[in-house]
Amino acid sequence: MSTVEKSFPVSWDQFHRDARALAWRLAGTGQEWKAIVCITRGGLVPAAIIARELGTRLIETVCVASYHDYSEQGELRVLKQISPELTADGGENVLIVDDLTDTGKTAAIVREMLPKAHFAAVYAKPKGRPMVDTFITEVSQDTWIYFPWDLGLTFQAPIGKGSAG
Ligand SMILES: O=P(O)(O)OC[C@H]1O[C@H](OP(=O)(O)OP(=O)(O)O)[C@H](O)[C@@H]1O
Ligand code: HPA
Ligand SMILES: [Mg+2]
After folding, report:
1. Ligand nearest to the CA of 144
2. Taking all residues of the chain, what is their mean pLDDT, rounded to a whole number?
3. Binding of xanthine: at which residues (predicted)?
4. Is residue 144 in contact with ligand 2, taking CB distance under 6 Å?
5. Can you give the residue ranges of every domain in the chain?
6. What separation in Å is there between the alpha carbon of 24 and the centre of ligand 3?
7. What are the start-end ranges of the H helices in 32-153?
8. Would you call 89 a catalytic residue per the annotation?
9. Is the pLDDT of residue 68 over 70?
10. Which one of the ligands is nearest to 147 CA?
11. Is the CB of 46 under 6 A from ligand 1?
12. Distance between CA 85 and CA 75 in Å, rounded?
């Protein structure tokens, strides 16, 4: 997306809670997954939390890159494919995990590889929402989500005018 107006910063604590909430929701479906396929790199973090909660031990990656600079999506490149062991039956009982879906393009590519899999993301924007089966929080399309692994502690200017000293 290129017109980002709002920001949604997420702390480690909040991300852990949201990823755990996603695990609760997935557990509530009653389905058992034989493997998690996480979409790198963002999907690695929620995948670790969900795997811990659901007791999943078989973790696979699909390596997709698209956002080269902040908020500008380039051409999607698949750098590593999913093992044929998991794609052979279309991804039956496989859980795909990503941190978020924005335009839905990344999710669409991975869904094509595993049409029978369940797609879970912690956050979703409206355009990508139809591509996910389960998510926790929706933010507007013009919001940029700042993940804790991309953030650091910096000085914040005071809110009140003229109080900057
Ligand atoms: O729905 P889309 O518009 O396709 O965007 C969503 C994808 O963009 C980000 O990944 P990115 O390609 O930036 O790579 P990263 O996970 O390595 O940060 C994010 O982690 C999702 O995978
Ligand atoms: O809102 C976002 N935040 C971080 N990475 C992203 N990749 C696509 N959209 C986003
Ligand atoms: Mg990603």
Report:
1. 2
2. 94
3. 102, 145
4. yes
5. 7-146
6. 22
7. 44-54, 84-87, 105-113
8. no
9. no
10. 2
11. no
12. 27
Q: What is the CATH number of domain 7-146?
A: 3.40.50.2020
Q: How many helices (H) and strands (E) does the chain have?
A: 4, 8
pLDDT for 90 equals 98
pLDDT tens column, 136-154: 999 999 999 999 999 999 9
Q: Show binding-site residues for xanthine.
A: 102, 145
The active-site residue, picked from 98, 133, 142, 150, is 98
Check residue 4 and give its pLDDT.
75
- Ligand 2 probe mutation, 39, 67, 99, most atoms within 8 A of CB: 67
Q: What distances in angstroms separate CA 98 from CA 51, 164, 165, one per listed residue?
A: 13, 40, 43
Q: Whole-prediction pTM value?
A: 0.93
Q: Which residues contact 135 (CB under 8 A, 6 or more apart)?
A: 22, 101, 120, 121, 122, 123, 124, 129
- For the beta sheet containing 59-69, the strands, ordered from the edge strand earlier in sequence to the opposite edge, are 72-80, 59-69, 35-40, 94-101, 118-124, 134-138
Q: Which residue has the higher pLDDT, 20 or 162?
A: 20
Active site residue 99: yes
Residue 56 corresponds to which tokens in the numbers above? 């999943």
Phi and psi at residue 13, to the nearest 5°: -60, -45
Residue nearest to atom 9 of ligand 2 (CA): 102
